[in-house]
Design brief:
Low-confidence stretches: none
Strand content: 5-15%
Distance between the termini: 25 Å
Shape: globular
Largest sheet: 7 strands, mixed
Radius of gyration: 20 Å
Number of helices: 11
Strand order of the largest sheet: 1-2-3-9-4-5-6
Helix content: 25-40%
Order of helices and strands: HHHEEHEHEEEHEHEHEHHH
CATH superfamily: Malate/L-lactate/L-sulpholactate dehydrogenase, NADPH binding domain
Number of strands: 9
Number of domains: 1
Amino acid sequence: MNGKNKKILLIVKKIFTKHKLNSNHARISANAIINAELVGAHSHGLSRLKMYCDRIKKKVINPNPKIKIKKISQSISQIDANNSIGFVAADIGIKQAIKNAKKTGIGLVGIKNSGHYGLSGYYAEQAVKKNLIVFCFTNAPPAIAPHGAKKSLFGTNPICFGTPTSSKIPFILDTSVSVINRGKIRVAAKNGKKLPKGVALDKFGKPTTDAKKALTGVQLPIASFRGSGLAWMVDILSGVFTGGNHGGKVKDPFDDFSGPQNIGHLFFVMKPNLFVGNYNERIKQNIKRIKRLPKTKGVKEILYPGQNKQRRYKKNLNKKINITANISEDLKKLNA
């Protein structure tokens, strides 16, 4: 990371410490936000900093949480995050899941009373770097209507899977179940930009490219009823199963300060050699076989999930993070 980006990282950390996070929690949170910028996920980066700080000021994020880890078995742990900032709860959770998996082969961690934790892939990558396979689930505020319903209820609930590969670039699939993630719509609304067609409906159920109208309407899921079903699945796994809010009860972090979000997260981590001793060779052959397939016109290389992200990260690592006028103003006010 270049000097200018390190400076931004330190400013973000300083802002979090000003908002009463301890030095370690501020570092964890700042690192997650800057990572989002470096991988090109600007909707989950600096554009959300003010929101986290606003929630701390309104006392719906606890800056000094007493996080409890309950051991259910050698493989399974439950975490009560005590309304901490989501980055910290998730960081503790994925590390516990990794620790459990290293001991027994499988690590399962459910987290409740947490908040928005940024990019799921950021936590999946931590497990993959330890040569582990991982699933990450988290729910979110209402944005998608269940199939056949007029009202939003499910979040854009990301599905994330990661595995080691034969190369230094991990396979990380991190995708929301909506056509476009809600963060991108918020950024578009803030910057006065139009949305692509086919991603949202307004509150009257009509297609819209107006980002502000989309935020008060309904986001469209991927693959029609299948995407809605996947959103429901994630709501069950990360909400019903963990003890977190579910069924449309997760509060919007930008607009609803009536109480903590109580988001649930679920991390499922496992050793890749549980069934076969030559997993690394098998995944190498799997990827090689797919990359050798005939390519459609205009495609130079078949990429696996995670490759593009890694290339963006390397490209952006030594480039200055682009800060819009809106975010620059937020940084000045928060750091004043």
